[in-house]
TrEMBL record, chain A:
Family that this chain belongs to: Belongs to the ABC transporter superfamily.
Residue span(s) of domain ABC transporter: 4-234
Protein name per its UniProtKB record: ABC transporter ATP-binding protein
Gene3D superfamilies: 2.40.50.100, Nucleic acid-binding proteins, P-loop containing nucleotide triphosphate hydrolases
Pfam family, one: ABC_tran
Lineage top rank: taxon: Bacteria
Keywords: ATP-binding, Cell membrane, Membrane, Nucleotide-binding, Translocase, Transport
Stored InterPro entries: AAA+_ATPase, ABC_transporter-like_ATP-bd, ABC_transporter-like_CS, ABC_transpr_MalK/UgpC-like, Mo/tungstate-bd_C_term_dom, NA-bd_OB-fold, P-loop_NTPase, Transp-assoc_OB_typ2
Keyword Zinc-finger in record: no
Organism the protein comes from: Devosia rhodophyticola
GO MF entries: ATP binding
PROSITE patterns per UniProt: ABC_TRANSPORTER_1, ABC_TRANSPORTER_2
UniProtKB/TrEMBL annotation, chain B:
Protein name: Iron ABC transporter permease
Chief localization: membrane
Coiled coil region boundaries: none
Pfam families associated with the record: BPD_transp_1
Membrane-spanning ranges: 12-35, 55-82, 94-118, 138-160, 193-211, 242-262, 291-316, 348-370, 382-402, 408-426, 458-484, 516-535
SUPFAM superfamilies: MetI-like (SSF161098)
Amino acid sequence: MTSITLRSLRKEYNGQVAIPNLDLDIHDGEFFTLLGPSGCGKTTLLRMIAGFNSIEAGTISFDDVVINDRSPAARNIGMVFQSYALFPQMTAAKNVAFGLQTRNIERAESIRRVEAALESVHMAHLKDRLPGEMSGGQQQRVALARALVIQPAVLLMDEPLSNLDAKLRVEMRDTIREAQREAGITTVYVTHDQEEAMAVSDRIAVMSMGVVQQVGSPAEIYRNPANRFVAEFIGKTNLIVRDLHQRDGVTTLDLGEGVSVDVTSTIAPGVSGRVQVSVRPEAVRAGGSGLQAEVVEETFLGSHSQIRARLSTGETIEFLEFSRRASLWERGEKVVLQLDTEMLTYFDAETGASIMQGAKL
Amino acid sequence: MPRFNFWTVVMILTWVMLFVLLFIPVGSVLVSSLYDQSGNPTIANYLKFLGEPRFHQAFINTLVVGFGGLIGALLLGSIMAFCVSRFVIGGGRFVSLLAILALVSPPFIGAYSWIVLFGAGGVVRGFLRDMGVNMPPIYGVGGILIVFSLKFYPYVYLMVSGALSNVNRSLEEAAEGLGLTPLQRTFKISFPMVFPALTAGGLLALIHAIADFGTPRLLGRGYNVLATEAFTLYSAEVGSNMSMATTISVVLILVSMVFVLLQRYMSRRNVYHGNMINKPVRIKLKGWRNVLAHVAVYFIGLSGAMPVIISVIYSFRKTSGPVFQSGFALQSYERILFNLGDVVRNSLTFSLTAVALIVIVGTVVGVLVARRTNFNTALLDGAFMVPYVMPGIVIGIAFIAAFNTGPIVLTGTATIIILSVFIRRLPYTVRTTASSLRQISPSMEEAAISLGYSPFQAFLRITVPLIVPGIIAGGMLSFVTAINELSSSLVLYVGSTMTMPVRIYLLILDGDFGTAAALSTVLLVLSGGAVYIAFRFMGRNEQALL
């Protein structure tokens, strides 16, 4: 069991700063995901932990032992690559056994472990296949077995599912989660796919431009995003701009058309003026009392529909509706939108930082 | 940091090697061309080159055979490529085999076989004369061009058929959907896409044509080119003129350099397009069109392979001295066995030694060039261009100029022949090793490192096994080049270091064609065996022969 501690980490490429100053704590046995758009520094960070990238400043520690100067081979890591990186001249079983050969493990023990590892990713029946004879999903399963069989202190995965098709991705992420839980290995997982991150992670670090924007469980970062970037990157949301009003120690948000919300206990004290309101699609319901709107478009998706409507202010709100009605919404049809005020989150209109109570201001 | 030291040592040794085997010889050629016979600096040699009609003529003749060879090769090669890649041709693999035969046979054999058929006393010509048809003998520029066209068309054929069969059919279908007629489609869509391949293949034919020595020597009959002039000036027993020979060599290098640079530029543009999900299908022709396509393909293929066929047949003919008798016998082979064993042995030892050196040095330097990218390696990569532009005859003269006197004297040794082959073929191995290394994803080695191997172990256990088949195949193809090398060996050999091509050349000059044919057949079997092994290791890939 290994915890990973990153302190004041800095990465430069030819004078260009990729990661300015980064701190992270990854706990024992945790499935930890680095999530962000391409170019945010997540793969760079993973490769620094693996030892393939140099470290310009700061420290990386496994269990409080600084490993900056250890070679990748000496870090006891298992790595799964985006391109699988299976050795094309070796069968599945030989690929998996490769890491055991350098560890002086008894032959019988080695065979047993290789078989167990292949079994855990449901690939035992294809152990004599060459990588060229396997599908992408099968190759990635073997790559996972190869990384796990050496019982590494840390499992590192660099976008392992991005070369697979959508259906296989869902299947594989269950396999990965299952195998990781069984082995209980501290895992750092890199992806740009927020849904994938939510599905597999214990905790997620959302990154942008080399800076960690927020660390938290999937539910935390979805329900209480630290800033507008996180709110927009994780899931879908509608952002509208409204004013706060203070009177007699009570803060209210004026949503318009006579609808207002008492936010005294939700918004941090001392905040006033214009704010951005993040309205998740599931916080909107058609019908009842609320804001007047006009339907722009309904996209029928089977179990539910995605509906886009325009408020009288001109702002667009997207929301979801289960397919219960016999007919679809007409373009231009009037609709009243009721907002679940419990589910709204608020950001500073200028900086985009969260102004919720308890948020770091 | 021991690894750093290892590669630094490799880098230094590579530069030393290039300096000794390349820069000194080329420098010696240049220096020698700037001195007169008595050792005074002068530019008189160049003035003489510009002034004398004999050299003008050789210069013009070189361009004539170069461009003539280019046009002939383009014509034959593109017809064959078009037919084979677009129509169903019976025995398509056999046709490719014919093209390979033409490519791996030594060109002077081609020249002599055509003399046998169409020379002054030629078999076919005699037969036609009996029929009442009089045709001129094949000697002179016409003959040279015919031989070059038939010898070098495979360059165009292999390049263009590669490009043609990779043109995405969807592009032509898209053009069809936009309303273009088949003719318009061919000229507006397909032609521009194979144009780089056409020019690159044609220029390859041109480069080989201007460097060729054996063909104009045997067929020219007074039609001199720069390569033959350089050799004549160097080897003349009376009035040998080394400084004039080197002057011509410099001119030949310059001419060759222009076309090599042009060829490389066109090759780089010859990129095949996208993912080939939608490959063109071959059309099955009907009626006279089908007959025409087959006749064209087989006529070109068989004509190109004719010299090989003739040599093999003649090698089994009964002889009395140098004169052929009717009937078949193994006399010619007996003569090789009893009199020419040392020549065969020389060829084999020289070629195998050169290939072993090429493989070892080429691989190490290839790794250096591919993996340690910095200014130094870029410069190294550039320096390896130089042997590409050196015709064999020039390498020979350059080695004589460099190693005849001075600190290192090598003339008359086996070493000098081995080194001349080594330096000429080394760049191919360096480049193929470097490019195959660049194609292996770096995450493969990283995976091995993450599993606990050191970077050097990872390289040895993962990368090396992946590139070894390519290296063996490349070595086999180098062997083909090495064992067929005539022009530099002709300058460098002495009695005890005679090789098979040199012996064949001398036998042809002596009129002993039976022995020459048998020796050529041995050469051909060795080359064919090497090509077969190469194809076994890397799959049947005719493109690798280019």
